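Severity: low
Component: inverse-folding endpoint
Summary: output formatting inconsistent between runs
Steps to reproduce: submit the following C-alpha cells with default settings.
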C-alpha cells in the first residue's frame, strides 16, 4: 500500500513546517488528491490514522479534498471531465487530450499555533 508511505511523507512535511514556524501545535492539515493521482482516498485516510500516532499531528484535523479531473481535447479543444485515463473526448471521440487537473497530490495548507 503506497498510501502509507504518502501518509508518512505528509506527517514529515507538516512536522517540519510546524518546527520551522516554531509552532506548538498543528491544528489542521489540508491535502489535495486528484482522482487521477493513483491514490485511493480511503486507503490514505486509513494510513493517516496510523501514521499520525505519537506525532505532532495526532490531534490535528486532517481534511482530504478530492480534485476532479479536467482535460482539453487536442483535436477539437473541448474541455471535459474524464473519470480515468482511458476516456475519449465526448465531442469528437479522440483519445488525444491534455490533462489540466486531477493528478494533484499535495499538502495544500497547514494551520498551526
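Observed output (run 2 of 3):
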Amino acid at each position: 500500500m503506497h498510501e502509507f508511505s504518502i501518509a508518512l511523507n505528509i506527517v514529515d512535511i507538516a512536522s517540519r513546517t510546524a518546527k520551522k514556524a516554531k509552532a506548538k501545535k498543528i491544528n489542521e492539515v489540508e491535502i489535495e488528491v486528484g482522482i487521477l493521482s493513483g491514490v485511493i482516498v480511503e486507503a490514505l485516510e486509513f494510513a493517516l490514522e496510523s501514521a499520525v500516532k505519537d506525532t505532532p499531528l495526532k490531534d490535528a484535523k486532517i481534511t482530504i479534498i478530492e480534485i476532479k479531473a479536467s482535460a482539453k481535447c487536442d483535436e477539437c479543444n473541448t474541455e471535459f471531465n474524464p473519470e480515468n485515463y482511458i476516456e475519449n473526448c465526448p465531442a469528437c471521440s479522440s483519445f488525444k487530450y491534455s490533462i489540466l487537473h486531477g493528478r494533484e497530490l499535495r499538502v495544500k495548507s497547514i494551520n498551526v499555533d
